[in-house]
Amino acid sequence: MAERYSSFAPGGTSWLLQRITAAFLIGVLAFHFFQLHFVTHAFEVELAGTQARMENPAYYLTMVSFLIAAAFHGVNGVYNALVNQGIEGTQKTALKWGLTAAGIVLVVQGIRVANAMAGVSIV
Amino acid sequence: MSQSYNRGLVEDFGRWREFSAGMWAWIFHKFTGWVLIGYLFTHIAVLSTAMEGAASYNSTIQGLEGLLMIRVLEVGLLAVAVFHILNGIRLLMVNLGIGLESQDKSFYASLFVTALIVVASVPTFLGGGL
């Protein structure tokens, strides 16, 4: 068998979640690129058009799920790549919580932006 | 099978001649992953101008898109995203035990299809509105 090249220990929860989010992201990332470069050209993007798309509940939910899945997949990927590279002890703990905090900030801010685009107001 | 291999330091670039296709796929997947998560933070920061209203959002997006450098960088982003998607599909297949014997060929196919898609997209990304 060929050597196994991966930053992830196989079979763990983080490995499984990375694969599940990957399967989702493959489709949604391709859709996102296609939608905002080929259907609507990037230089034509205006808030009115963005709002029209985001006011559709299915589109809004797809984009928020995309954000959460991408944030998790990216942060989990960086964490496992660095652990695989050999960091351990205090550095590993600091990395884990630092990346968790960064991921949470990214998702919270992303949802605030999505809500502003969709005209959703939460206190 | 759970077995670890001593791959040595990837950062030791002098070793690159020893790398196999699978090793290159792993390095490219990591590199493109770093770029994509870095971009996601930037993307949300730029889109946050939507919270300031239409004038701020429109001028930011259109101002950025009016710069040739940004459009060239977007072609790079497309290349990175397409490779990560295609190699990601390859990894999911490998994880499912499908096509293990031809994992090197599927890596070359990922590179080739990425190049095709990127080249075909250049007119759309660079043209119009400039």
Note poorly predicted spans of chain B.
Answer: none
Number of continuous helical runs of chain B: 4
* Cα radius of gyration of chain A in angstroms: 18 Å
CATH topology of chain A: 3 helical TM bundles of succinate and fumarate reductases
Number of strands of chain B: 0
What does the model show?
The complex is a heterodimer of chains A (123) and B (130). Chain A is an all-alpha fold and 123 residues long. Chain A has a single domain, classed as 3 helical TM bundles of succinate and fumarate reductases. Chain A has four helices and no strands. The radius of gyration of chain A is 18 Å and the shape is elongated. Chain A starts with 12 loop residues before the first helix and ends in a 5-residue tail after the last helix. Chain B is mainly alpha-helical and 130 residues long. Chain B is elongated and about 55 Å long. The chains are: A mainly alpha (123), B mainly alpha (130). At the A-B interface, helix 1, helix 2, helix 3 and helix 4 of A face helix 1, helix 2, helix 3 and helix 4 of B.
Draw up the topology in text.
The complex is a heterodimer of chains A (123) and B (130).
Chain A (H helix, E strand, L loop, with lengths): L12 H27 L7 H8 L2 H29 L4 H29 L5
Helix pairs in contact in A: 1-3, 2-4, 3-4
Chain B lengths: L20 H27 L6 H12 L2 H28 L7 H24 L4
Helix pairs in contact in B: 1-3, 3-4
In brief, what are we looking at here?
With 123 residues, chain A is mostly helical.
Properties at a glance:
heterodimer, A: 123 residues, elongated, B: 130 residues, 70% helix
